[in-house]
Amino acid sequence: MNRPATLIGAVVLNFLIGLLCIFFGLLFVWAFLNGVHERVGLSPSFAIPARIIIFGTPIYGALAVVGAVGTWGRSRRGWWLCLGINGLGIAALAPWASSFDRTVGAVVSIVILGLAVLLLVAPRTRSALRD
Questions:
Q1: Which of 11, 13, 31, 87 allows an S-S link to 36, with CB 3.0 to 4.6 Å?
Q2: What is the span of the domain harbouring residue 55?
């Protein structure tokens, strides 16, 4: 089965994004469970958003990997999952990227996610999918 380069690129990017999010997300969870947030003085007003980020990151990563595997199998559901995950990532990082200090990590992440979206919506990628 020949796969277009755009599909391969999209799958590789989403798979790497997923693996990195799983790794760092589990690292965040480990740090949280070991009380790092208490030692660094996490503001109580940031407690709920911090928990969403901490526990959401590995879930986000797992969904990115599942989407990448599905897209590799030319599944339209996998493709939609990748597209949705990338859109969610861009939306979640946009406030940091547009802030006054323009956090470099957020900007680079948005560029990588944007590239993944462009590869996913490329005509050759979409035409390679099965219904």
A1: 31
A2: 5-125
